[in-house]
């Protein structure tokens, strides 16, 4: 049996180790995920049921004399991980087990949580020891959210808007697909006889087209709250892949499956010669959640190991992408890995490429995610999408600069550059390619952006004395900006300002801060770290430049070495 | 060819406008009607549960004619029960005052202003186009604030490790340090940085100790490459370190260490012992022609596609390209404020070569048969080179790493001179021979 600490650590790693920076993280625990995590533990359990093992571990940690005791779960463990994550996962598991048409009420929710915690289900309401959401479980949610922010991710758990669901909204907001949702999706896949190797967003667009045929909870997931579309699309895609692996059954997937073979889906990575302007695209493999073993593919006539580039992504493959690959997609077998089958470049009609969110000055664009408000992106698309795109511009939903630029000689593909979403009002505009609309329609109404200052790449960190300007992009005229230390309550800076204009901010000391923008009941938060010059360390260059000199030597700075030692 | 018309059909409805948009949108999606029904416009100022008008845009060959697939699917929804009486077809101008500019129901929101960004110009790190700043040759008063920014620049580069030319320019801009191309070159001369042969990327060099010629009893070294505050503090605790400002304060200060057993420092602090780099470079570097051959060749240049200016010994002058050996600026035919690249053309091999700007100029001067000169004062161990004949970067690096200091400037009637410190006679002999430079003893004649 794995103990609570073990499960806690494994859950944090599962949900964050392959997430990219600036990704919204959902603690979307369900039976399959627990089985997958348990499957990777280097230990065996008697009955082979990791879900029960997880429940037992949580019960052993938090239940004493029929009461829930959460006091010991506050704070961080020896690895600086929040101690409450496994308990929060149990809360999400309870939300996940609610039936499809069930009303969201405290009684319904806590009945399921009681069952998971092994408490009597004949009683209603909050269990003993959890009488006050604000004092009992909410501090754990806040610690988890703060930890996520401090590590570059975007938290997604949030309070409800008041009433009895105020605190149970935290776990409910994390639960994505319930068991009944998965079974209905499987029926849909079977009915439509889908077989294509679609990526997550293409599949999502197909499922959304069928939304009227789907039951209430699934329909809500597919139409409300665009912020979670990306995470939801990934979850639906996992169901789709599992369904294919299981031979496309007509009704239900096997429950609690710990192990099934998946694919790696890739994005695109675009570089541009800064002096001649030549554009080159590369295949950019995305990491697979829960898969931490090394991966080797058969590529370009040889075996190639995928090397981690940054959280969520492997280094791009070396050979430039050809137009035929872009047009028809490609597939490379994964070898020596029992969890993965192929690396797939899907055949898509368009790709959205954004500047590097960790270091916007590199000039590189890639499929790192949906563009945030105010971010100019490149839309790589087939020419037949141009009427749709023109319509979006005619309705002042997007804007771009210049004419569509051809890519690859004599190809059917063009780039639309410096493209930006400028409006919120997309609902009444209809285009042929619904997936394009889903990809571009803004998921949020407010977004905090940093510009200027002196930044340390990949860390959300700026150096003391060289602070960034803060721009709050949004569709309202004015917005309130508040800056608070991450582990504090008193704001150090508060101002009401116009949206879409840079605001100069000042931080008196180095440390971790949360910026919160609020307007018309909407709010958004972003983390920033201010680093003192004296805390900078030396980092080995990712790529070391060397100048060759004669006699078989090269020089790097002042270090002369024979070329053979490179 | 028949023309498609866009026209509007109007309806009235009482209910939730958001729900109406949502459901119509789902139907359009479900039945793939986006090419026939491009959008929906709703009356301005609409309130929930109050009656309002909305207009469905229809695209068809004949105005007023609803395509059958729209009629049989979408228009079956209850929202379309009450068409505007008379069933007219509107154009946008007729309904515009009523619906505003869009199908907008969030009337309290605004669009995000869009501003296109100018494409970055062709600002190659090897292109030096403005010599004005160095013409101000007087050694300036050293500004402590600027000096500290150069220290910060090296700390930042050390912490980041590597990056693109764009990122280098950006950090200089953030630190308000001007002329990033010259800064890049100075950091290379000081052994702190290396750039790729095409100039697109940079990486900081590993921390290293470079032995210099010393008059002291103990051995003397300079610290090159990466550094951070904690490393300097630890070194200061271990041994005697001296920070010497650069002559013009336009680069990180020179850190000198006086130690007898350098190997203990290199082992304890993971610093590379680079040895006497000046002497090693003087031995290893090829002669000028060998260096020329080692320069990166740029294939595929079609001269008629560009305008060319050739270096005539003093300036770049416009000239039709006639395969003449020399240093050229390559300009777009459409013009522009910056040359695209500066290259050296070899007639013999019909090859375009890329290299550091001063190096290419030195080559051009060599082929123009101008005398290349230097003056050496053995008493002070100082070498003077005319600014107008600055050496290729790798050769100048050998001079700078002899002291860890950039050159000072000295003006005489004939020349503006660069003065390098702590240069041994043997170093002068080897380097001037390799570069075909005539060196005379004494500054009095300079």
Tell me what the structure shows.
The complex is a heterodimer of chains A (566) and B (446). Chain A is an alpha+beta fold and 566 residues long. Chain A folds into four domains: 4-174, no CATH class; 179-245, no CATH class; 262-438, no CATH class; 446-535, Immunoglobulin-like (Sandwich). Helix content of chain A is 26%, strand content 26%. Chain A contains 14 helices and 29 strands. In chain A, strands 5, 6, 7, 8, 11, 12, 13, 14, 15, 16 and 17 form an eleven-stranded mixed β-sheet that branches. In chain A, strands 19-20-26-25-22-23 form a six-stranded mixed β-sheet, with no helix packed on it. The longest helix of chain A is centred in the middle third of the chain and has 17 residues, at 229-245. Chain B has four domains: 5-99, Alpha-Beta Plaits (2-Layer Sandwich), CATH 3.30.70; 137-275, no CATH class; 296-354, no CATH class; 373-441, no CATH class. In chain B, the strands form five sheets. A six-stranded antiparallel β-sheet of chain B has the order 13-18-17-16-14-15. Chain B has a five-stranded mixed β-sheet with strand order 10-11-9-8-12, with helices on both faces. In chain B, a hairpin with a 4-residue loop joins β17 (341-346) and β18 (351-354). Chain B starts with a strand and ends in a 5-residue tail after the last strand. The chains are: A alpha+beta (566), B alpha+beta (446). The interface between A and B is large, with 79 and 100 residues.
Overall 3D shape of chain A: globular
**Span between termini of chain B:** 83 Å
Q: How would you sum up the global shape of chain B?
A: elongated
Counted up, domains of chain B total 4
Q: What is the number of beta strands of chain A?
A: 29
Return the average pLDDT of chain A rounded to an integer.
90
- Specify Rg of chain B, calculated over alpha carbons: 35 Å
Over the alpha carbons, how many angstroms does the gyration radius of chain A reach?
A: 25 Å
